[in-house]
Specification:
globular, two-stranded antiparallel ribbon, single chain, two-stranded antiparallel sheet, 175 residues, mainly alpha, 44% helix
Length: 175
């Protein structure tokens, strides 16, 4: 599964643009639309084209993490919401940082555990607990998590079914 264009647009909106490196509230050097890998304080400014490449890389990496970690089928909205979530918090690592896949304590996040148990409502409720950065509850994260959760809970649109021709009726043309 791949993130939709809507996910890319939401990621840009949530992260905001910065051509120059800055220290985010979570203590990570960041550039572009939320890119952190290899970013330092002394990195030169980037162009929007470079930022687009970083964003694409970050989304692809988040897609891979979601694909590996989630064992239930997802609709497009659920997938997009999880990709946005992972882009922001990462997979996590025991003893280092909590994330979707692994908490600092070594176990999986409750969000992932509930989702893989097919408890989507329980997983959705966990979203609202991930609103801290740098030890502080951030208003921007409260809004972002509420929006990601709402996306996760939104049924994906399904294409309209093909019309069933009536017996003996001519085929429908130009509908």
């Amino acid at each position: 599964m791949k993130a939709s264009l809507k996910a890319y647009a939401l990621a840009k909106g949530y992260e905001g643009w910065s051509a120059a490196p800055y220290l985010c509230p979570g203590g990570q050097w960041t550039i572009g639309w939320g890119h952190t890998l290899g970013v330092t304080a002394h990195m030169p400014a980037i162009t929007e084209a470079q930022g687009e490449l970083y964003l694409a890389h970050d989304i692809i990496e988040a897609e891979r993490i979601v694909e590996r970690a989630v064992t239930v089928s997802l609709n497009q909205n659920e997938f997009d919401a999880l990709v946005l979530f992972v882009m922001n918090i990462g997979p996590g690592r025991a003893g280092v940082k909590s994330g979707l896949v692994e908490l600092r304590s070594g176990g999986p996040s409750t969000l992932l555990r509930r989702l893989n148990e097919n408890d989507r409502a329980g997983a959705a409720d966990e979203w609202l607990k991930w609103v801290y950065a740098g030890g502080q509850k951030l208003p921007g994260l409260i809004i972002r998590r509420a929006e990601e959760r709402a996306l996760f809970m939104t049924p994906a649109a399904r294409p309209a079914p093909e019309p069933v021709p009536l017996p003996g009726a001519p085929p429908a043309v130009g509908l």
